Every structure is written in C-alpha cells, then in structure tokens.
Fold each of these.
Amino acid sequence: MTIAPLVELRAIKKHYVINKSFLEKVAGAKKQIIKAVDGVDLQIFNGEILGLVGESGCGKSTLGRTILQLHRATAGEIYFEGKCINHLKGHDLRKFRQDAQIIFQNPYSSLNPRKSVRQILSLALRSRGLKDSLEQEREIRHLLSSVGLAERQIDNYPHQFSGGQRQRIGIARALAMKPRFIVADEPVSALDVSVQAQIINLLEELQQEYKLTYLFVAHDLSVIHYISDRVAVMYLGKVVEIAKTEELFNNPRHPYTQALISAIPSVDKERRKNRIILEGTVPTPLNPPSGCAFHTRCFLKLGQICETKTPELIYDSMGNGVACHYVKA
Amino acid sequence: MLQVKDLTMVYETDRGKVKAVNGVNFSIGHGEVLGLVGESGCGKSATLLTLLGLVPYPGKITSGEILFNGEDLRKKSPTEMRNIRGKDIAMIFQDPMTALNPVFKVGEQIRETLRIHGLMQEQKGSWWSRRKKQNHNERERVMELMKEVGIPSPDERFFEYPHQFSGGMQQRVVIAIALACSAQLLLADEPTTALDVTIQAQILELLNKINRERETAIIMVTHNLGMAAEFCQKIAVMYAGEIVEQGPTDAVLENPKHPYTQGLLQSIPRISERKQRIEPIPGSVPDLATLDETCAFYPRCGKRTKACLLKKYNLEDLGEGHSAKCALYS
Amino acid sequence: METHLRSLRLFGQNLQAFFSQLKKHPSAWLGGIVILLYVAMAIIAPLLAPHSPIGTDLQLRLIPPFWQDGGTWSHFFGTDVLGMDLLSRIIYGARISLLIGFLAVGISVLIGVVLGMLAGYFRGFFDEIISRFAELLMAFPFLIFAIGIMAVLGPGFGNLLLALTFKGWVEFFRLVRGEMMVEKTKEYVEAATALGVSHLRIIISEILPNVVHSILVLGTLRLGYMIIMEASLSFLGLGIQPPTPAWGSMISAGRDYMMTAWWISTIPGIALLILVLSINLFGEGLRDVSDPRLKRG
Ligand SMILES: Nc1ncnc2c1ncn2[C@@H]1O[C@H](COP(=O)(O)OP(=O)(O)OP(=O)(O)O)[C@@H](O)[C@H]1O
Ligand SMILES: Nc1ncnc2c1ncn2[C@@H]1O[C@H](COP(=O)(O)OP(=O)(O)OP(=O)(O)O)[C@@H](O)[C@H]1O
Ligand SMILES: [Mg+2]
Ligand SMILES: [Mg+2]
C-alpha cells in the first residue's frame, strides 16, 4: 500500500515488572515480568476503524494506552503521521494529546465523581487552550448536543446519569480535544444491549462527521464485525491475524481466529455451524508458552516447530496478515 | 415439573417498593432448557433467587405459587427447602468465586455435597473399615465428577484451592457440585458472562452435554440473545420485572411480537453477508421504584397508543405456546 | 466570577445534603453541639470565667463544689490546694486542650497528606523511603514515644506540638497514600492524563476532592486522641506546666487529695471525658455518612 498510515507501531513491547515487597527482595526473590504486549507491528490508516479483539488479559488495553503514551513502551517505536512519538515531552506531548484521545470501558470510574459535566468538559477545553469562559460555554453546549445529552444537564454530577449517558459524557470529553484518532477501549462492553446500540451508532456517526480514526477494542465479535473496517486479533501480547472484516469473518486463517468466530452465539439459524471448542485455558502472560503462544490449545499443531519457533506475522498481497506455521505451510 | 404462577417479589427500600419480580408465570418440563433474557436490572436474578427461597433482604414474596413436582415450595419449611436446594435444584452463579469457599480444597467442597445429602451408599463392616471404604468411594466419585465436567488431572486438582483455578475451571467445579446430587433442575445465572469467549463455548458445551445425557432441566439467565437462541428451547423475555413475551425460541426470535423484543433484536449487531443497520431502542431501562401499573415499556415504545395507558394487560396467548403482553394483542 | 458563584452554590447544596444526612445520627448531632459549646467556651473564656484561672488565695483552699457542705456559689466547682477557682481553670483549660488538639491534628494532616499524595502517586524510591520511615515510627507506642521526646526536649508548648506531630502524621500518610493508590488506577485519572493535565493539577484538583472526606473523618477521630495525649503528657508533668491551666496537670495535681478533695481531679476529668466522647461520636457519625458501605439497612 502506498498510503502512509496515521499510526504505525513497530515491534512495540510493553512489559510490566511486578514489584516484590521489601522483604521478598531481601530474601532474593527475582523480579517477575508480565509481557502484556510482546512485539506488535500494526498500521492504522486515516479514517478507518480498526477492531481489536482477544481474550481477557491478552494486552488490548495495554496496547491502546501505550499508543497514547499513557504508558511508555518498553521497546519499539510508535509513529503518528510519520513522526516518532515515543519520547515526546512537554509541549510536543500535549500537542499530540490533542490529536489522540481515549474512551474508556467503565462508565463509572472514568468520570470524576466530584466534578459536574461542565467541569469535566471545561477541563478538556482548557487543555486544548480554550480559556474564554463564554466560548467554553458555547462549546460545551455544542458538545453535549452532538453526543445526544440535554443542555439542561450541564451542571449535573456523574451519579445523576445512567451508564449510557455517562458513556456519552466520556465521548464528549474525548471529542472536546478535537482529536483525529481515538482509542475506544471496550466503550460498549459495560452497557445494556439496547443502550449499546445507541452508543455504537453515535460513535459511527461521529466518526463520519469528524473524519475520525478509531482503534476499537471489544470482545464481542458481533460488535467488532458491525463497526470495523479491518480487524486485528490478539493472543497473549501478539497480533496473530489481521484482515479486512469480511475476509476475517468469512475466511479466518489462524486457528485461534477460527475458534473465536465459530464460538459466536448467533440469533440467526443459518450461522450456527460446527463449533470449534478449544481445549484448555488461556495461559498467563507471566509465563507464556514457548514458540507460538497458542500451541498449547491449537488443533492444527504441526509439531516441533510450533513449540520452538515463534511464527511471524506475514502479509499477503491484499494486506491481510497471519502469524501461523500451519497457514504458511 | 416446575410451574411458577403469578409470582411477585418486592424489595421494600427507602425509595419505595421495587417490584423486582412482578406477576411472573412460566413452566418448565423435564429436560427442557428455558432462557430468561432481558437487560440489566430487569429482575432475572431476583426471579431465580425467589424460586430457591433465597429472597435477599429487604425482599418479600407477596403473591404466587412455585409448584415443583406438584408441591408448592412456598409452603415448605426452611429445613425442607435446604434439602431441596442442592439436591433437586442447583444453582450456578455468574461469579463462581461467590459459590466456592476460598479456604477449602476444591475436592473437599464437592465431597461435602455428597455427604450432606447422604448420596453415598452406606458401607458394612467395623466403624474403621467403614470409614475407610466410605472415604475411598467418595473420593472416587468426586474424581469421576471432576472428570465429567472436564477438569484435567483430577487427582492433583482435588487438593487445590479455588483461587488456584481459572474462572472457567471454577465454573466447572460449581457445575460438578450441581451434578454431584443429580439435580433435576439447574438454575444458571449468567454462567458464562464473566468468562472469555472460547471458555464460554466450553462451558456451554458442558451444560449442553449435561442436559442431553442426564435430562436435567435448565433455566438459563442471560442477556446475550444469541446464546439463548442457540442453547434454549424456550425463551422468556423480561422487562422491568415482568415477562413480556415467551414461547418457543424460534417463534420468539424469528417472529417477535412484543415491541421490546423487536427492539432488542434490532439493536444487536448481526453477522451476516450484508450489513444491516442496528436500530437502538431510545431511552434507557426505567427505575423500578418509580413504576406504576401500566406498561413499563411505554416511554420507550415505538408502537405506543392511547390504549396502552388504559389498563394493565396480561400475557395473551398467540398460539403454539407463544404469548406476549401488549395492548396490540388484546 | 459566575463559575465561582456556581461552585459556591453547589458547595452549599453539598453541605445541606450532608447535614440532612447527619440528622439521622442523633448522637453525632449531640457530639457536634457539645464540641461547638466547648469551642465557644474556649473563645470567650475571659467573659465566662468568674475568677482568674491562676489567682491563688490560700485562705480559700480546698473549698468543695457548691452542692456539698461548705461549698459556695461563688466557687461553683470549688477550689484546689492553692485556692485557685476550679471552674475558671476548666474554662481556660479548654483553650489549651482545643488549641493543642487542633494544631497537632492540623500539622499532622498537612505533613501526612502532602507526603501521602506524593508517595502514592509517584511511588518509586521516594515512596519506599517515606513508607519505611513511617513503618519505623509505627513500631513505637505513641505515648512512650511522646514521653521520650518530651523528656529530651523538656516541657513547653512548642515541644509538646513537636512530640505529638512527630508521629501523628503517619496515620494520615498511610490513609492518603492508600487512597491515592486506589484513585490513581481509576480511569478518570488516566483520562485527565490523556488530556495533558499536569501531575500536580491531577493530584490537587482531580484526586484530592475524592479523598477529602476520609481525611476529615480520620482528622476528627484523631482530634480526640490528640487531646487525650496532651492531657496524659501534662498529667505526667511533661506537657503544660502549672500554673497554666491544663486539664491533665489539674487531674495530676488532685491525685494526692483524692480521699479528702475528690473534686480537684474528678471535675477536670469529666470535662475531658465529655469533650473526647463528643468528638468521637461526631467523628463516627461523619464516617457513617461519608461511607455508605457502613450504613445500616
Ligand atoms: N499496571 C499494570 N501492572 C502490572 N500488570 C498489568 C498492569 N496493567 C495490566 N497488566 C497485566 O497485563 C496483561 C494485559 O492486560 P490488559 O489490561 O492490557 O488486558 P486486556 O486485553 O485489556 O484485557 P481485558 O479484556 O480484561 O480488558 C494482564 O495480564 C494484566 O494483568
Ligand atoms: N437488595 C436489594 N434492595 C433493593 N432493590 C434491589 C436489591 N437487589 C436488587 N434490587 C433491584 O431489583 C431489580 C432486579 O435486580 P436483579 O438483580 O434481579 O436484576 P438482573 O435482571 O439479574 O440484572 P443483571 O443482568 O444486572 O444481573 C433491580 O432493579 C435492582 O435494582
Ligand atoms: Mg482491557
Ligand atoms: Mg443478575
């Protein structure tokens, strides 16, 4: 592809060191390392919605936060519009943060319970450099109406809103920065089905209106299918497959993706096919299996090579990538 | 086997009466699987707990009958109920940790169930040899159960504590406890919501197997319509403490009658060849403390008319076991 | 200006809601009222006290309270060995107790909160050092520690404050550090970071308002404790020295006369008891109101 990506990750790693207590350190305990994200290459193009799926603890949130510089990457480089942003500080970092924002999963802990909607949004506007209080007022009202909240609720506190409404406030806060790229970290997972649909539609409308680019994290595959242009599947800190949405759902290549997609419970009769039930449980990132991390549960395992050699993500001519020895063979 | 008639349970709170279960009627036969679907706070868990006689404070059952094999559970004494719970009716919770005791070994907890309900055969011989045989038999039986629910290497796992198990494995232990007493009815309250997708599939498969092989009836609470569709023969849709529509799965999902069910089905994204736009239901679930007698869905309904506010409507039979509670069908 | 007014109004609303909740706790109300009375008494002590708190008159020694034989109305609670009027000394004694109590708690809060917020937010080496030091201090019983300091430094108002706060901040430090660590993981803090808000601002204007309640509750409960500590040190002769009126030293002065003149020790003791009890009742009411998990029903 010749179009330059908006965001590009090169071999991003994020390892957490688990601090031992003082006594354990004296006793000589070794540091434990959680490899939450362990070598991810990814390109996100302007105006697209890239879905990110994977099981709990596979590093989806960590990846999103690392891109936004909420955590510093342990290794690798992140480019935003071709500029490396790994080591931005001060003014440059603040400037980047106007371009890239985040929406959180939990509509309860993501809003400060002691701040009114007005205070929450004006904090964002001030960070953008909008200091004049009249202009702020106008902008806040505009934001509220664009996320579908009533203007008279401007002085209400978060606990006076329902989960869906809180999520709208969180979205308004992100929009207040006029970003171009948004990491949406499971924005609908905590919501009721009927409200979930409202938020998905809102996010889609905003994307078109403001020409946004999303990294959309979810574990509900139907939501991912609905909203994404492309989908990346993560397993234990690595991207194992990335493809156009239709391609991924109709023709999954990685055995893990195949299992995931076959496991989607569907209301439609014709979609209920043979189910691939994976054996075993998800390994921990504290002690990931050697070679291909999926080999302990894989039903297509080739043998020795899967246990010793980590498969690389290999792209075909269509830009769809898969990391599997079997598929390559 | 189980028939619930006009069951009502009310939480008496500071803010007023919360009718968490409001005139609920349904029945389930041997080997049937009933799905109880609905959004958060509509009283699904409350219904299950009420069936078991475990009404949480400050709740009270104000009316209704719970007929289990012809006997009304509401008339049973606490001791009789305790016997029925676990032995005839078992419950599986969303969070398996709440059902397991963190300080006892997993194997012991399954064995405990066998003991309490006296499910092992009495052995003959001196006290000592009887104890030994009994112990041995019990352990064998526990291992068998653990194997049946798919816990690998049960002889080691027997001696581990719940926190050493992953969420999916813990859920299997809870299921093993339910199997231990060969309950006729399994109440599963969102048994897979806390689990990962691939693990969800494993647990559903296990429940399916139990239902097929043992003819255990299952009431499964879920807010995932897809899961209900695949797993249940009958579906009851709840909204604000009431069952608004029920019937055979295919009838309810392919030909939904109640506007709420229709709305729900339109608001879930479907995976299909061409992208169907989702249509959310406007507004959000009402506060149960502030409801009056008329239709609770009225403020969000796209098909509301003046008739809706006139009176309270009942579940109206629409043929083939399919019924809905709406002014449109009265 | 307008925003200030609005926040003032909201603050007023909060306060109103707070007091209406507190109404459900009659004991807390009672405690609050008694505390206010004590404070008022301390402030207008010169107007209330019938005699000088330090004026001795050996001819008026050991007069019993008015209701006993030989008591007079002019010496309401009687007099002590040196003929000083007990009522006046108790009224003035409230000044010392409350002043020391509020100052000791205030300084402890200041030190503990600042260190706790920094340590809990930034963690790392700084946190490690302060936490170890705090743990070290925790290992000593408060009273023995304070006695040690006073013995080294000698008695006096400033030294007393030092002795009380030297260890007093630790509790606040641990509370705030813990709460900080909890709040810091909440997503609203991350959201503020993502907006480019500076760390200092996040700590002060985002997180602090969420922990103020706990600090207030602990502060109230510690106030009673500090007042007791001051009295204990004065009782042992290490705190405020006679003739300056302090309840602790008054109790101590009457010890030898318990058999013949019980009132010298007992009445200041009761004054102390009522104040500390009220503070604790109020503090517990506060805790119930601010922590809904502990609410009954
Ligand atoms: N601050 C942290 N310190 C240490 N370990 C962490 C931290 N944050 C995350 N982890 C660990 O990193 C791994 C990846 O976590 P992450 O939150 O990115 O997962 P996720 O894919 O978002 O999962 P979920 O679907 O549950 O949100 C997990 O094992 C988690 O325990
Ligand atoms: N102890 C209680 N006191 C008062 N009201 C309660 C109590 N427990 C639950 N409720 C209310 O009863 C209603 C039904 O609750 P229930 O837990 O049955 O919902 P649910 O359908 O299981 O929801 P979820 O999907 O979130 O588990 C809710 O509106 C809830 O607010
Ligand atoms: Mg996450
Ligand atoms: Mg529930």
Amino acid sequence: MRFLPVLVSLATLASAGLTAQVAPAAAPETAKPAAPATQKIRTVKLKMRDGLRFEPPRFEAKPGEALVIEIENGDTTDLTHNFVLLRPGTRETVITSALALAEKGPAQEFIPASSDILVHSQVLAPDGAAKITLTVPGEPGIYPYVCTFPGHGMIMYGALYAGVTLPPLDKDPNIPPTAAQTTVAGAGKRPFAQRIFMPEAGPAAIAVALAGSQNVCWDAGQCRLRYAWQGGFIDASANWAGNGLVLPVVPTKPWWRAPKDDFPLRFGSADAAAPTPKFLGYAATPSGPIFRYRAGETEVFEQVIPAAGRPGIAVRLQIPRAKGPVFYRAANDENSKWSSSVGTWNGGVLTLTPAQAADVTLTLTSALCTP
Amino acid sequence: MNPLALSRPLMSAALIATALLSAAPALVAAEALPAAGARVAEFYSIGKLATPAGVDPQIGGLALMPDGRMVAAFHHGEVAFYDFKKSSWKIFAEGLHEPLGVLPGKDGSLLVMQRPELTRLRDTDGDGVADSYETVFDDFGMTGNYHEFAFGPVRGPDGKLFVALNLASAGDTIRPEIRGEWSPIGLARDRFYAGDWKKYATEAGRMYGRVKWRGCVVELDETTGASSLYATGFRSPDGMFFDSAGNFYVNDNQGDWRGTSPVHIVKRGGFYGHPASLVWRPDWDGSEPLKQPVERLNALRTLPAINIPYAIYGNSPTQMVTIPQTAAWGPFGGQMIVGEMNSGRVLRLLPEQVDGVWQGACVNFVDSPALRGGIHRLVFAGDTLYLGRTHLIWAGGEGIGTVKLTKTPFEALNLHATPKGFRFEFTAPLDVSAADPMRWAGQRYFYKYHEPYGSPQMDLTPVTPSKVTLSGDGHIADVEFAELKPGYIYDFDLAGLASVAGDTVLNPRIAYTLNRVPRVPAK
Ligand SMILES: [Cu+2]
C-alpha cells in the first residue's frame, strides 16, 4: 500500500475527475476556493463525539454545492478519529480495506488507496480540528462519511444527503441505529427500575421512576434512599453511548437529598450505632421494586411509592421480625416534611414498636414539589 | 486500533500512537491476515438473527437454557429469551447494570453478572417474567471507574461459580463514593480527588485495582454466596471457560503488562501477570506491586498457555467455547474457539500439556468482514454458532450473527510440539510438494513482559525447517528444526501448501506458543 497523506489525495481526486479539495486546518494556504470568491461558501460543522458518533449523524447539501466542513474531535474519552467522505454505497468496502491495512494503517492515517474516497481528514487527536473544502458531486446521492480508525467504522458513520429527500430519522438506514434511539431509561415506562451509575450516590445505585412524576435514587451499596426529583426519568444516552464514564443526567434538580453518611435505621435505642446494611436484592412488582436488605441482623423490606393524595414520595418499610423498638431518623428541613402512618416522632426520629415496624409508611413532602 | 471493547483503556493520542508503533515495529515482517471473505463463503454460511425490537442490540451475555431456548443479556440491561421453535423473543428482565454474562442457574433460575453484583433472576409467579432479582454476590469493590467491568459467571466441575473483575483504568479517576475495602498500597486516595487527574494518573498505574478483588478471579458458592479469592494478575479478563476435562481457561487483553493477549490455564492461588491485583493476595508483603522489579514479578507469574499475537491474529479475545462434536462441525468438533472484538473473526485455540506445562496454538477459524466485529459472546445451538456482538465505546459491532459450516475447508486441524519441532495435522491429505521444507517458512518471536502498553515482536527471526516428513496418508506432517527455542512463539505461514485436491489452506497463519520443548514425541 502506498503512503497517502492528505495532500496527496488532492492529486488522487483530481485524477478521478472530482472537484473536491482538502486542506488540513493548519495549512489553509493550500485550500483553493471551490467556488468564485464572490459567493459565500456554506460551512457545515461536524463533531466527533463520545461513543463513536458523528454529530450530526446526517446533513443535507445541494449537488454541486461548495462546502466547508469544519471537523472537530470533541471526544472526551481520548479517542482519535478521522473523517472520510465516500461515494454512495461504498462504506463497508472502504472500512474493510482500511482494516486490511493492519499495522500499516497508522502511517497512512488509516486511509486505504481507494477511488471510492472523495475527501478525508487526517487522524484527529482529541480537541484536534480540520477544515475540508469541497464541491459536493453533481450527481444526487447519499454520500456516506465514516471514521476508518480500526474498529470505529461499523459504528461511527453518517450520511451527506445531496439532492435526496431525508427519510424520518428513525427510519434512516444510512445512519447508525443509535442516532435515532430514545435514551430515557425505560422509555417512559413507570414504575421502572434501572441499575446504573448515578450522580451523588455510590457506584451500586438504582434509579427508580415511580408511578406519576416522582423519581428517586436508591443506593444498593448503602441500602438507603439518596434523593428524589420530580419530572422526567434519567437520560442515560451519554452513559450508554459510552463505556459508563459519563453519568446519566437527572433532568431536574432533586427536591430532597438524604443527609450524608447517615443510615436512617437504629435498633434498640435511638443512639445505637448504625447497623451495617447488606443488600439482598429486590422483588419487581407492578407497583415498583421492593428492596430487601439486612440492617445488622434485621431483615428489612423497603419500597418507595408516590405519596398518597399529595405531591411527594412515601417510603413503606416492612420489618417483620424486629426484636425491640425501631428508630428511623428522618429530620425535616426548610422545605421537606416527614410524617408517618404509625409511631411517635421525637425531634426528627420516628420511634416504632416491633408491631408498628412490621408495616409503616413514612411520607415525605416538600414545598418544592408541585402537584 | 482499538481492540478490546471491554478492556481498552482510554489513552491519550500520544499513547495510542505509541501503542500502535510498539505493536508494529519497522522490522516486523508480519502481514495482516488477508480478509478472505469471499473464500470463507465457500465453506461457511454467515447470517444474522434479529434482536428484540426497541432493545439496544449490544450483547453482554449469551447462553443456552436447558429447555433449548437461548438467553441474551443486552447493554441497557434487558435479559430476553429466544424461542427457536417460535422464532420469537420474550423480555424476561430489565434495568440491569451493564450485564456481561448469563448462566442458567441450577434450579431454573438465571444468573446474571452485572457491574455491581451477581444476581439470580427468577420468575416466581409463572408469568414468564422475572419478579425476583436476588443478590447472590456483591462483596467486591467498586470505585465507579468506568473500566471496572465484571465478567462471568462460569461453573466449574464441582459446581462452584467463578467471576472475574476488571481493573480500573487511569483514563479516569475514582468516584467520591466507593464500595468496599480500599487498599492503602499505592497512590494516596486523596490524590485521586486532587482535581488534576492527568497529573497523577501515571502514578496510579495505567490500570489500578485499589478496591477489593479488582483484577482477580473469584470463586463462589451458588447457594450460600460465600466467596473466596481464586487467582490474581488480570487486567480485563473477558473470557472464562471450563473445558470438559475441568481445565479453567481465562484470557485477557493486550495492554499494560500484556505484551499481547494471553490465554491462561488458571489454578487456585496463581498469579497471571498484571501486578495491580497483587495487593489482594493474602501473602503479599505490602510493597507497591507496580514498583517491583520485573524479575520478581516474572518469577511469580504463570506464563500464558497461548499467546494471541497482536494485530496478526487478534487484539481483544472474548468468550471461549467448545465446538460441539456433531456432524455439523466436521473435524472441528471438540476444539475450543474464542471470539475477537476488533474484527469479524473467531479463532481456534489448540492447547496441550507438555511435561506438565500448558502451551499451544491459535489459528483463525472463521475470518470474514461478514462477521463484522465485536464478537463478544458465543453459543452453539443446533448446527449453528451464534455470535453476540458489542462495542460500547470501542471497536466492535452489534446484534447477533450466525455461522454454519457448509463444507470442510483445507486447514491445519491441529498442531503439537515434538522434541524436534512440530506435528501438523490437516483436514485433508497434503500434496507431496509439502515435503519441501521451504514451504513451511515461519518466524519466531516473543512479547516482552513489562509495564508499557503492548510489546513489539522481540527477536523476530525467520525459521525454516531442516526436515519435513509426511505421514503415509498425507494428513500429518512432522516438521523438524535444527534448533528449537522455548519461550518463543513459532508463527507459521502455510500459504505455500496445497492438498492433494489442489486446495490451499483457508487460514494459513498458525502460531504456537512454545513454553517447553517436549522430551518425548507426541503419540
Ligand atoms: Cu473514530
């Protein structure tokens, strides 16, 4: 295979009778205007993103239109990428030829010698950029673009639509299927539990969409409720498009957060040391997950449900075999207020007899919650 | 270039370039194996199985249930059964955290390894959907680092379960809240939170295992959940496998301390090369493993049974399975195969024990762009091999591919070490021209055991046999060398051979990891 740096590809293109020109961003003097200087050349911005994606995954141009494509590697996960624009229908062939370069790939920017390649950038390091000036071929068609870095091509691609009508995003076979996917975990289903990394929690977290509009983060590592928010469930797109590095987005500010490092249950006396919790799993029920854990030696069932008749959440605790009084630390703060179905409150601590602890519902409401 | 979907650390551009160059030094003559897609189609039919609608089609786990259904675990956390009779999927569970392995439980339940725990899924009310998500094992550490994937489980001959835990990657730091015991050995924890992670990343180790049992293989009792540390020294052990004789294979991915991807035979208490997890060995002396002399670590480690030469054979090995001994798979029945993330390829592994030492060969089995890449999970059902693909942020593919053998190709079926060289077995008789030693030209080299990422091919030397003897039926060739060097990979190119019928070898490259030269000839 011959070495094919970016500027050589100009010659290749010329010999192929195409009118595209390429210039690295660092050497703008080599870029010839692709259209009369009086005519303003449209600029298209293209970003390489986490999860082997081009953003946008597709764009439109007129056949014969002069374009400047400004490419930026905005991948925050330190991956390098290139941009290669191809003749219609040649994506898989070119990926295969690029892969066949094997260890010779790096020296030629993973660009195989191929007349199917219209223009390409160099390999761009993170934060690297390139500017490509080209004239879109006069023949209407769907021109694929792809990253030929080994392994990326099957996932990292998009399509330039030249004089061809765009199909609906979710029915476009020329873009990666993930580009059109809904990425709210559970796709709107409520109640729904999703185990995933969550902000402001330990790494073994569970996000729960309650029936209605409340959501909570329950920490399986610490066996306790961490925070609650109202509105949409988590947007997991960046987490799922990547490798888990980027946390899901909680779309609205939590209206309540648990105190730090405070496991709420105490047994025997209100001042007893916090028992060590051990997560045992959950039952998936039509009303949402019922978590099960041991607090010290005591088995606890816990379910978070919408508060009855008012905005907020309720924690239903079932402790079937408490040996003595049970204490639950649940202090009010400036906005939120706890109440309970049974038991006695004493300065932010609920005291329960063993019989009351067998089934108690604590309700948490807040001035920040709206009906 | 990236390799392993599940093991590739985040690297700076400079590191990536270095890794590439070190894997392909100028003097290396190794050619990439040709993409023989068109020829492959003469012998294998390659297709696909549609995955459930609305489910992200990246496969973390794939297994066959005792009742014949196939079960798949998906990237976003769904688990679904495929009924071959009805050709339909049914979602069984959802909302799991990056499941990377499924295994039928003993009692009709299903075991799934999620990032944070091993979970038993059970349908207690008989509606076909899991309602019990029971934690079987979560007594291991998590820092929240993205690279802490969890693999398994596999079941050993005595019924014990095994899971494997990835190291964290210096591509990122740790989360403010972690789970499990923190080892004080190494970079102080406050440095992980100092803000300028790039500054401290190298001191943490390119891969680090500071919370409980990271980089280790763990043994579990399915019933009680009781756990014990089984083996140390792993980086990203995506593939674990017990063969029918009870040998425990664990592979790993090229990277730091991994000159190329190894396949190990693992025993209790063993150390398999990546030092980060040594902090979890009960007998470790408390010193910083990453600062130990290579000689000390080298003396402690068990060598790989098989090295998979990087960029020539594979970059990122995945699940290992045995080909069923049925007519559908011809002479390959009973052999072990392994998936590859970086290209559309499945390899055969040909391990053998020589004077008590494990070693053996790897050779491409099915290598075609039609398989795409990301071949992560493999299962045989009927006469078909099902390939579950993934990529996450790395190289790979999606969905489920299928492969069937339609006609046996001319291949090196097996390769054994002999006191003077190697014994090759073929799927069809060799033409007499194969008696010419020049047709068996190969090269030998080794990969360095060191901290940097990958390794060049060291001491790369062409080798030509001194003598080749063909068996009477032409199926076997004894290839002798004037000199045999243990500690080297003997990498042959059989492209110059032909069968009596005039066929050339479909996958002509085959590489044998020669740990020991046998004293007595193979039977
Ligand atoms: Cu790329």
